[in-house]
C-alpha cells in the first residue's frame, strides 16, 4: 500500500521537473505525460476525498492503490468520515474536494432538503451492495410465515409480508417496531421503505414544511438513523430490531451470530444504483481538467474491480480490510465482495452481482437514476409539494453530469485504456434507462413518467397529496 501521503506535494513538484527535462532533452513523452497533454494539466493536483467505511468505496481505494490517480497527475489523500452528514459538510465547506456519497445526497442538497448546496455527480460508483438484516428473535418470529421451503432453507426473496404479522403483534402490545437505516436520503432508507411498503407495512412520512423530519408520521415501523459501522452493535443491544445497510455490516451480523440478513437490495430492485462520487458544482467549474482526471481514474478502478468475472476481488478485499479503509476482517468482506452472500448462518448462496462496479454501464450517471430517488423523496414526504414531470427532469440534469463522464470515457478510449463497447453509445444516449421491471412488488419504473410511477403505489404520497 502507498502510505507516503505527506510526500505528495514533493512528488508533484518532481513530476513537473521530470517532464520539463524530458521535453528539453527531446525524449519521447511517457504515456502519463501524453495523457496530461490531452486534457490539459490538472488545475489542482493535491486532493482530499472522503468516504464511509463500506465496501462500495472500493473504486476510490483501488484508484489510489493501483496508481490510477497518479497516472492522471493527481495526488490524493483518502480520509474516512464519521458519518454521512460530516462527509457532506466537508465537501460543501471545501475541507474535502469530493467524496463517496449516498446517491440521494447531491439531489437532496441541491433541492434544499437538509443542507442547501449545489452538489453534482459525474460518476456512479456501483450497483447493488445493500441488505436488510433482522435480529435472531425477529427472524424466529418471521420464519413460520414463510410459505415455501426447499431442503430446509427458505425460498427467496423474503418479502416483508412475512414480517407484517410480527409488526402487528408488536403494535397490539403497544411496543414500537424499530429499525435502522443510515441517513434520511440514503438508498438504504428508500430500499427499506420500499420493501416494507411492498409488504403492507407503512414506514411513515416526513413533513419538513411542518418541521417534522423524523419520518414517522402514520408509521407501522419506526425508522431511525444509525451510522453503518454501528449497526451490528445497535442491533445486539436491542435498540433496533433490524436494519438496512451496505456491506460488510450485514455479513458482520452473521459472523457475530446476532442477526440474519433476509434480503439483498438486488432482490428488491435488480441492479439498482447505489453510491455516487459527489463534488460541488463550483469545484467542477473551477477545476474542469482535474474533475475529468478524477473520473478517468475512477473508471479504470471500476473496470479493474469487475474484470475477468471479478477475478481481482480477492486482492481488492485485502485492501479494503485494512483499517484505513473498511477495517473489517478479510473473511467478512469477502463473503459478499467475491460473489456470495450468507443469509442465515450456513446458508451461503451465490450472488455474483451483489457488488457491481463497472459492468451493465454501472458507472454512467443516468438521469433516470436521479429521477427514481426524487420520486422516493416525494413518495415519503421529503418533497412536500406536488412537482411536474419537467421538474424531475430538470433537477436530474442539474445534478447528474453525463457530459463530464463522456469526456473522461472518450479520452480513455483514445488512450487505448478502454474500448467504446464498455460504455453507452454517447451519440445516442439520452440518459434514461429502458423501463425497469425487476422490483420485488412487480411495479415497473419508467424514468420518463415520474408522476405516473408514483400513482402506481398503494402506500405513499402521489398527485396533489400533502401531509
Describe this structure as you would to a colleague:
There is one protein chain. By secondary structure, the chain is of the alpha/beta class. It has 2 domains: 5-127 and 274-365 and 401-422, D-Maltodextrin-Binding Protein, domain 2, CATH 3.40.190.10; 130-272 and 447-455, 3-Layer(aba) Sandwich (D-Maltodextrin-Binding Protein, domain 2). 41% of the residues lie in helices and 17% in strands. It has 20 helices and 18 strands. It has helices at 8-25, 31-39, 58-65, 68-71, 84-92, 104-111, 136-142, 164-172, 187-198, 231-236, 249-256, 265-268, 281-286, 288-310, 313-320, 330-337, 367-379, 389-399, 402-414, 450-455, and strands at residues 46-51, 75-80, 98-102, 119-124, 127-128, 130-135, 149-150, 153-154, 177-181, 205-207, 212-217, 221-225, 242-246, 259-264, 275-280, 340-342, 348-350, 355-356. The strands form 6 sheets. Strands 2-1-3-15-4 form a 5-stranded mixed sheet, sandwiched between helices. Strands 12-9-13-6-14 form a 5-stranded mixed sheet, with helices on both faces. Strands 5-18 form a two-stranded antiparallel ribbon. The radius of gyration is 22 Å and the shape is globular. The chain starts with 7 loop residues before the first helix and ends in a 12-residue tail after the last helix.
What count of helical segments does DSSP give?
20
Tell me the β content. Answer: 15-25%
Domain unit count: 2
Label the structural class: alpha/beta
CATH fold topology of the largest domain:
D-Maltodextrin-Binding Protein, domain 2
Spans where pLDDT lies below 50 across 5 or more residues: 1-37
Q: What is the spatial order of strands in the main beta sheet? A: 2-1-3-15-4
CATH architecture of the largest domain: 3-Layer(aba) Sandwich
> Residue-averaged pLDDT, rounded?
92
Largest sheet at a glance?
Answer: 5 strands, mixed
The CA-CA distance between the termini, in Å, is 52 Å
* Fourth CATH level, the homologous superfamily of the largest domain: Periplasmic binding protein-like II
- What is the number of E strands? 18
The gyration radius over C-alpha positions equals 22 Å
The helicity comes to 40-55%
CATH class of the largest domain: Alpha Beta
Shape: globular
Amino acid at each position: 500500500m502507498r502510505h507516503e501521503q505527506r510526500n505528495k506535494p514533493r512528488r508533484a513538484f518532481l513530476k513537473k521537473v521530470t517532464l520539463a527535462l524530458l521535453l528539453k532533452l527531446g525524449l519521447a513523452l511517457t504515456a502519463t505525460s501524453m495523457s496530461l497533454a490531452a486534457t490539459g494539466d490538472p488545475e489542482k493536483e493535491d486532493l482530499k476525498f472522503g468516504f464511509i467505511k463500506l465496501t462500495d468505496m472500493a473504486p476510490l481505494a483501488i484508484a489510489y492503490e493501483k496508481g490510477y490517480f497518479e497516472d492522471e497527475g493527481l495526488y490524493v489523500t483518502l480520509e474516512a468520515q464519521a458519518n454521512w452528514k460530516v462527509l457532506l459538510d466537508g465537501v460543501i465547506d471545501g475541507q474535502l474536494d469530493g467524496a463517496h456519497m449516498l446517491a440521494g445526497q447531491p439531489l437532496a442538497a441541491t433541492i434544499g432538503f437538509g443542507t442547501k448546496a449545489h452538489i453534482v455527480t459525474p460518476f456512479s460508483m456501483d450497483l447493488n451492495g445493500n441488505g436488510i438484516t433482522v435480529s435472531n428473535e425477529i427472524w424466529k418470529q418471521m420464519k413460520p410465515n414463510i410459505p415455501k421451503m426447499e431442503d430446509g432453507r427458505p425460498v427467496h426473496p423474503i418479502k416483508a409480508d412475512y414480517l407484517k404479522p410480527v409488526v402487528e403483534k408488536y403494535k397490539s402490545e403497544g411496543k414500537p417496531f424499530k429499525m435502522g437505516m443510515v441517513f434520511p436520503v440514503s438508498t438504504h432508507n428508500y430500499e427499506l421503505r420500499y420493501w416494507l411498503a411492498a409488504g403492507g407495512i407503512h414506514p411513515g412520512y416526513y413533513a419538513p414544511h411542518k418541521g417534522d423530519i423524523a419520518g414517522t408520521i402514520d408509521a407501522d415501523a419506526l425508522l431511525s438513523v444509525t451510522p453503518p459501522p454501528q449497526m451490528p452493535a445497535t442491533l445486539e443491544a436491542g435498540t433496533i430490531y433490524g436494519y438496512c445497510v451496505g456491506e460488510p455490516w450485514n455479513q458482520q451480523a452473521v459472523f457475530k451470530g446476532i442477526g440474519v440478513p433476509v434480503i439483498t437490495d438486488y432482490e428488491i430492485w435488480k441492479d439498482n444504483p447505489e453510491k455516487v462520487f459527489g463534488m460541488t458544482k463550483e469545484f467542477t467549474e473551477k477545476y474542469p481538467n482535474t474533475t475529468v482526471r478524477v473520473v478517468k481514474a475512477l473508471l479504470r478502478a471500476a473496470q479493474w474491480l469487475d474484470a475477468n468475472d471479478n477475478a481481482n476481488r480477492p486482492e481488492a478485499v485485502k485492501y479494503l480490510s485494512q483499517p484505513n479503509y473498511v477495517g473489517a476482517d478479510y473473511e467478512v468482506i469477502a463473503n459478499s465482495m467475491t460473489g456470495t452472500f450468507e443469509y442465515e448462518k450456513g446458508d451461503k448462496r451465490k450472488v455474483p452481482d451483489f457488488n457491481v462496479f463497472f459492468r451493465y454501464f454501472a458507472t454512467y450517471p443516468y438521469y433516470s437514476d436521479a429521477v427514481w430517488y426524487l420520486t422516493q423523496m416525494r413518495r415519503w414526504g421529503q418533497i412536500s409539494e406536488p412537482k411536474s414531470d419537467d421538474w424531475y427532469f430538470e433537477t436530474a440534469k442539474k445534478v447528474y453530469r453525463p457530459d463530464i463522464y463522456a469526456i473522461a470515457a472518450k479520452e480513455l478510449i483514445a488512450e487505448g485504456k478502454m474500448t467504446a463497447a464498455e460504455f453507452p453509445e454517447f451519440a445516442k444516449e439520452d440518459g434514461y434507462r429502458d423501463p425497469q421491471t425487476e422490483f420485488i412488488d412487480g411495479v415497473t419504473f419508467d424514468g420518463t413518467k415520474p408522476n405516473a410511477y408514483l400513482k402506481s403505489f398503494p402506500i405513499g404520497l402521489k398527485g396533489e397529496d400533502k401531509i
